[in-house]
């Protein structure tokens, strides 16, 4: 194991009716910026619920609506402007990972005088941030309990992941009933995204981490059991509940305690891909991840084999290690396809045309991959396998 | 799942050399009460290390040495007296669970004007506590990252578990190398205690908790793989490391998120038993737990069967559910015996003589058992099975 600090400051309120804790967490008469997306929270009643709680503490509420699925720098800047003009002292994100990521961006940049983009590209350090809470309406990214955010600069077509210990949510409300109306495609992408986070954690190279490896395997098995049931019964509170807790746990630090953190190359490639094509993040991951497995197992099949046997139901009997690993990659692709995730880049009408740009954007920050360090040709290989 | 709040305020610094973080966590020139046990920390160098860090922040250090294996009220009171007389503002526990539990008692009672025992028996509410950190030297109780403590009133022979959100350690240093010199019997009791905590969590009655159930099973399998290796190679840093992280995780809240918290009847019975006989807690648990399993499976074998199959390596093929469950209880007893834990009460020369008193002390607080609610006759049955 590596040395590590285990400490997550976010208070997670999980379960039906927990939204009431907003009134305990946000100080009376705060000046709150409410951040949300395309308006689904108005249709499903969550907006009204949140406003009710904010009224109860006599908050002065400002709004930033219309945060995009891949949240954009321009929207962050709009939020920062409101914060500065209106003296906002608390942010409340109501939505999925994109809304929360955008709120993290605003919270960091509101305390900074320069360009927000400089903070996300590490040109300037993040030294403080406005406090914020979240009300989650989509089980997917885990942003509700971690210090990570992804922001897209639409002008330069750069999508960048960044993190800072200052942007942990102070609290997050996870009420599974708020996810009952999530559309089928978003539900599927959420399952893929959560599983990808667990998979990226799994591909570390730290010796002697049996318990955490077992936790990751257990989380993945739970997602594979629950995923198909949820897709068949999207109105099931129990399945929504399971996936909501799975997705938060997949990326809140639990799965990286003592490891090198895992290999996030697939996320890096997907960010580059969806910066160029604006496709859903979960869809991009579903296409890329099995091909990343196929790429790395050629060099070292051991870990993919372990995944195949312990999680993906592949029998190792009488087979070479590499054969078992290959069947594992195939089984993961088949599983995701079975719940409705895309199979190939051509499902999005994507061809080789912009591969060079995608490869370059993958390396927008140096160091891609740790289980297997990637160079330009390995990223290109994965993209080609994904055609 | 039940609704729950997931938030553990303790900062866990895990790994070699982490003791240096004392200087970041305790304010300069603090007045510190250093709490420790029988002096093993002087032999293995941990005392010297801790003092070095405290000197670096120019702390004024007072000492409370000699905390007993089952820490006593009288020792807590001695600590409280020092705190009040010397204006202590920070406590540092260096030792195992007993030292930490004693420190929790001191930290709660130092801010209280009445009798300390009233706080532990819930006659008076705990409204604040002195902050404290811990340096762990024994992997067992999990006290280093939870709000729970057990104190024995030696005059009345009552041993009571209590908890308060005010007595989470502010930080805990977990350096596995500090456990390399733990004697064999303590090592074994630590394995039993950690596994018991996980087992007690496992016996909840909350539906739809597949991921957490899987986490518990994974933790138990890790303990069963590592335990025998550690007992054979007590100088192995890697095995110490694994068991140290297992024991903290077994009782830091991770395993009860969303469940009813599990069934702690065995711990309650053991506390009564070791209040009367002053035997090692882990030894008492090793005797009692398989008999608790045998007792409850007669009524409902389903969960014991699941444990038997998923953790204890029992094959269910062609067997009745109750048969598989019985083999599970037997397998747990056999495993603990194989690493050197006691088998029966007679190993401690304990007979029926004081059973009545033990049963009564088990009910010192009302409500024993949730998976199966116990009455006096069921506790007596478990004790008789343990003879």
UniProtKB/TrEMBL annotation, chains A, B:
Top enzyme category: oxidoreductase
Domain (Alcohol dehydrogenase iron-type/glycerol dehydrogenase GldA): residue spans on this chain: 9-176
PANTHER family xrefs: ALCOHOL DEHYDROGENASE YQHD
GO molecular function: oxidoreductase activity
Keyword Oxidoreductase: yes
CDD domains, per the entry: BDH
EC number: 1.1.1.-
Protein name: Iron-containing alcohol dehydrogenase
Domain Fe-containing alcohol dehydrogenase-like C-terminal positions: 187-386
Annotated Pfam families: ADH_Fe_C, Fe-ADH
Keywords assigned: Oxidoreductase
């Amino acid at each position: 194991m590596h040395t590590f600090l285990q400490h997550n400051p976010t208070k997670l309120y999980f379960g039906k009716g927990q939204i009431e804790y907003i009134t305990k967490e946000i100080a009376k008469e705060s000046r709150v910026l409410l951040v949300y997306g395309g308006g689904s929270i108005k249709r499903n009643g969550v907006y009204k619920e949140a406003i009710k709680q904010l009224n109860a503490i006599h908050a002065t509420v400002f709004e930033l609506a219309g945060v995009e699925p891949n949240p954009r720098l321009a929207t962050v800047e709009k939020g920062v402007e409101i914060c500065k003009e209106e003296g906002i002292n608390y942010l409340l994100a109501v939505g999925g990972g994109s809304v929360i990521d955008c709120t993290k961006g605003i919270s960091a940049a509101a305390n900074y005088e320069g360009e927000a983009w400089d903070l996300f590209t590490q040109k300037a350090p993040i030294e403080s941030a406005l406090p914020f809470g979240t009300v989650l309406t989509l089980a997917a990214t885990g942003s509700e309990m971690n210090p990570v955010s992804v922001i897209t600069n639409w002008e330069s077509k750069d999508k960048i992941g960044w993190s800072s210990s200052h942007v942990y949510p102070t609290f997050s409300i996870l009420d599974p009933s708020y996810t009952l109306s999530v559309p089928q495609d978003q539900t599927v992408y959420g399952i893929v995204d959560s599983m990808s986070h667990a998979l990226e954690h799994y591909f570390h190279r730290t010796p002697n981490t049996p318990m955490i490896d077992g936790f990751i395997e257990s989380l993945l098995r739970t997602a594979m059991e629950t995923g198909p049931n949820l897709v068949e019964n999207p109105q099931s509170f129990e399945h929504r509940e399971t996936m909501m807790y799975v997705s938060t746990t997949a990326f809140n630090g639990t799965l990286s305690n003592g490891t090198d953190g895992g290999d996030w190359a697939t996320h890096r490639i997907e960010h580059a891909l969806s910066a160029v094509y604006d496709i859903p993040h979960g869809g991009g991951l579903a296409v890329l991840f099995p091909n990343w497995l196929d790429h790395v197992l050629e060099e070292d099949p051991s870990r993919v084999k372990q995944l195949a046997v312990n999680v993906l139901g592949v029998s190792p009997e009488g087979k070479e290690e590499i054969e078992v690993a290959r069947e594992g990659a195939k089984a993961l692709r088949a599983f995701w396809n079975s719940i409705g995730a895309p199979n190939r880049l051509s499902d999005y009408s994507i061809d080789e045309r912009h591969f060079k740009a995608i490869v370059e954007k993958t390396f927008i920050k140096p160091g891609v991959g740790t289980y297997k360090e990637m160079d330009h040709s390995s990223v290109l290989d994965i993209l080609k396998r994904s055609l």
